[in-house]
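Bench notes, afternoon.
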Amino acid sequence: MRVFWEVTGAVFRRDLSAEWRQKDVLTTVIMFGLLTVVTFVFAFDPARHAREDVVPGCLWTAYLFAGMLGLGRSAARDSQDGGTIGLLLSPADRGAVYLGKFLSHSLFMAAGEAVVLIFSVVWFDLDQRHLTPWFFLVLLLGTLGFVAVGTVFAVVSQKSRLREVMLPVLLLPILAPMVMAAVEATTIILTPGGNEGLSAWLRLLSGFDFIFVIAGFLLYGFVLEE
């Protein structure tokens, strides 16, 4: 068990070190996320539309597509610097490698989402009535589900000549339940008058996370070796 956590920590630290040197994953997530939010701000004037009609779709569209670009960039970096080959040749537990990748990708996503959210708070005039603990719980569950699936399929996409196209093609159908639950839950939270129906969407998000974190943990080694 000690070796397992040492491998997880080593993979996590390696990803942080690579990102510290190149800053390409976080920059990609932040810049594309902000660009998406700005597009929504101009397309849907916040002064003329209710927050619950605009903000959920805006935020999750920004997080989803910016995250796909970030995960694709992370997988491409591993392929280019020989990181993937090193993992294949090492005797390290593949589940530990997946967990390390999962943690580093979650951290990158959380940092990028925080920056995008700060600007969204200003542009959409959000306050403590909207940014409740339920809001951040939905954000956490949605992010973990996205990273759990994306970490696996980012590696799969790198094995194709059309790697830039393959990742969204593979991810979007599988992520559909998570995206639907996250958007609906966020809409309920931002709608004045209570949180009726929120618990059902939270259960769906929690179940999605549980299933795909376990699946990624078990299948990541097969994906690396294919």
